[in-house]
Specification:
Layout (H helix, E strand, L loop, with lengths): L12 H26 L1 H17 L3 H13 L42 E3 L7 H6 L6 E3 L2 E3 L11 H8 L12 E5 L5 H6 L5 E6 L7 H8 L3 E3 L14 E7 L7 H13 E10 L9 H13 L3 E6 L2 E5 L1
Parallel strand pairs: 4-5, 4-7, 5-6, 7-8
Antiparallel strand pairs: 1-3, 2-3, 8-10, 9-10
């Protein structure tokens, strides 16, 4: 009987085995690609990886990039509350900072302009030191804000009415204002009823963060002070800039602070400085310097009413 002789394979068994492995890996990667792109598994896996990276990173810049990535995509997993030891600073892992112990839902606007929950801001120093000037006072479970300030203890309304004799507070001419050294921002809050959007700022000092009272009241405000850097606003941003007992040395350092205020005030805008050094005891030189700088910057004197100095840019 004859035998059929088949040609021997040119590949040995080891070579066939390696080719099978490569083919299997290739088809496996193709299958994984289709699963990730065309099924919900891909979205879920990507979200899990992003969250794991976010929670594990210790680099703040990397954290910010990851937060931006989350905001652009769809985050399907809930973000956990921060641990107790992280609530006093910005935690590196992404988490929700819980409300302080005893914090209540804030009083609704516009009632919040006049009162807030004491338990939401349990700091009595301003009420104790400035209560006689009408800043704020504690009554029962609330802090009440009569609307006063150091230069207007009878309330912001009569003070604004006095300023209205010289500058167009009403009528829509003034739309934006900046209140420097605002305390609890009663002046800015009162201007809202005149249709003037007022941003108020003050530094953090021995009274705790005064701005926190303003924010709790619903008044736009932030912690800030005039220093070595420009304020975070574009030029000509405000129609009206106000300082009441803000104690800013406007003419110091070659009038750097006054020049910064001038940058922010639009041409034709109004500047009001109430309190030192305007006709203030033992500050004759500072008062003279303030007037001289205003003249050099081509301001037009409107009036000097008591300790209030009103200029037009």
């Amino acid at each position: 009987m004859g035998h059929l002789n088949l040609p021997a394979s040119k590949r040995n068994p080891q070579q066939w085995k390696l080719l099978d492995i490569i083919s299997a890996v290739f088809f496996g990667l193709v299958l994984l690609f289709f699963l990730l792109v065309f099924t919900p598994l891909g979205d879920s896996l990507a979200a899990s990886v992003r969250q794991a990276l976010l929670l594990s990173t210790s680099d703040p810049s990397q954290r910010h990039r990851l937060v931006a990535l989350l905001e652009l995509g769809h985050h399907h997993q809930p973000i956990e509350a921060c641990p107790a030891d992280s609530v006093d600073h910005m935690p590196l892992p992404l988490c929700l900072i819980p409300s302080p112990l005893g914090y209540k839902i804030p009083v609704h606007w516009p009632e919040s302009l006049h009162k807030i929950w004491h338990s939401n801001m349990p700091h009595n120093k301003i009420a104790d030191r400035k209560g006689h000037q009408g800043w704020m006072k504690e009554e029962g479970p609330y802090f009440f804000f009569p609307g006063g300030g150091t230069m207007f203890p009878d309330g912001a309304a009569p003070y604004i009415e006095k300023l209205g004799q010289y500058i167009p507070i009403s009528g829509g001419t003034l739309r934006t204002a900046l209140d420097m050294g605002c305390g609890v921002a009663s002046f800015g809050g009162s201007l809202l009823s005149e249709g003037i959007l007022t941003l108020s700022f003050a530094p953090r000092d021995s009274h705790k963060a005064q701005i926190q009272f303003a924010l709790e009241r619903g008044i736009p405000a932030f912690v800030l002070m005039l220093g070595t850097r420009r304020l975070p606003f574009p030029a000509f941003a405000f129609d009206f800039i106000h300082c009441s007992q803000c104690l800013i040395p406007f003419t110091a350092y070659n009038a750097t602070y006054f020049i910064e205020v001038d940058r922010l005030l639009r041409p034709g805008g109004y500047l009001v400085i109430s309190g030192p050094p305007v006709q203030w005891p033992k500050q004759d030189k500072e008062w003279a310097d303030l007037q001289a700088v205003a003249r050099l910057l081509c301001y037009e004197l409107i009036a000097v009413d008591g300790n209030s100095h009103l200029e037009k840019a």
